[in-house]
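Support case: user asked for a sample of complex input and structure output to validate their parser. Sending the pair below.
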Amino acid sequence: MTGIVATISSGKGGVGKSTTTANLGIALASLGKKVVCIDSDIGLRNLDVVLGLENRIVYDLVDVIEGRCRLQQAMIRDKRQPELSLIPAAQTRDKSAVSPADMIRICDQLKEEMDWILIDSPAGIERGFRNALAPADLILVVTNPEVSAVRDADRVIGLVESEQKGPAKLIINRLNSALVKRGDMLNAEDVQDLLAIELIGIVPEDELVLISTNRGQPVVLDQKSDAGLAFMNIARRLNGEEVPFMRLDGKKDLFSSITNLLRFGGK
Amino acid sequence: MDIKTESKIRIKGYQDGLIITSNHQEWKDCQEEIISQICEKENFFRGGKITLDLGNLTVHAAEMGSMRDKLSDKGVTLWSVISNSPTTIKTAQMLGLDTPIYPGKSNLRDRQPSVSAIGDSALLIQRTLRSGISIQSEDSIIVLGDVNPGAELLSGKSILVWGRLRGAVQAGLSGETESVICAMVFTPTLLRIGEAVADIPAKMKKSKPYKAMLKDGVIHFEPWD
């Protein structure tokens, strides 16, 4: 089996990288794929919290790199989705504990048994970002429809291109259709026009995301959430399915109502 | 003047500055040796303009950018790059460095400047410039692509953007008052020609091509058609 390494990055902090990683991880696993999420934000780990796996950490990424445990021992299996596991970041170290070569080595090993390796990149464009970028086959650039986030995303895409990595695909997170309608928020076309890369998903603003994140229950598990459905659609697009984009004007079309019913296969 | 060391780099003076030729296989070693050479003879190098001849080495933007920064900390300007690797050439162009064609090992002095239709040479960039990219040239700059917010162009002469101009542009930095700035969509975050800074009128239609030029020290705009 040859897995795909997808790095989730943004440049700017707080746009929803960890939320996206957690939700795509669960969504891909629910589609029957073997998935591992790697938190590469050494020193500021939080993917474990978002996934609700915080109190099961024994070993972390740095332990694997420094040979204190085997790779398998650091992989925490998610009880809700047995196909999903997490390799947490070390909290007591910093970015210099990991090198791009370490990341490539670990991902090469994981590729043999996994379908997807999702790397949650830290904010910024320094060492941590380079570590996350090094093994990537695909870069998912997460941005919000606001000028500062879009500019940082543009910088990240420029760096991805100059490292000849990619392709880079765009996820627009926290789009508020009411604000867009009033002309108070950039719309998806504005963002895509500037960044000029393929759009793979638009996630609407949804307060259920915040609630679920605090509970460690990613929103994709909540069948009532529009954001959850949007993440599920991105996961299906990553798997090569053609999924039309959701209507974001508040009205649900027939298609999304049906997929909403069917998406966990009646689970 | 010829400074020979037993190392893998050779430093040679020519009329416009210094050429450093590297036979390293690894960029890291190459960079380390050049920097240590410069640290050793700081007074000799200070204020110098350097051409790097990197042979077959492949160098990416971040690496070359950090080299340029380290050199500039030492008061040395990285001015141009000669390479057999298309990636390295692309990298250098992206950083706004000159990339002279250097067939065989002939003298750099024999090189003829490229000549455009209006008699000036220009730097041609055939890609979109994203945030964080800075292009600097003593000649005019022509971009076939967009200039995104957060990118900057600094030119001694004119700037022409065959695309959307949304970044920062400064033209006429060599004091040329004839310099112009043209773009298909004209919404720069900053626009300067020579000493003058433009006040971009809000009423200028974003979707129309414009041309900016100096008239009596003030920047004027006119539709570019």
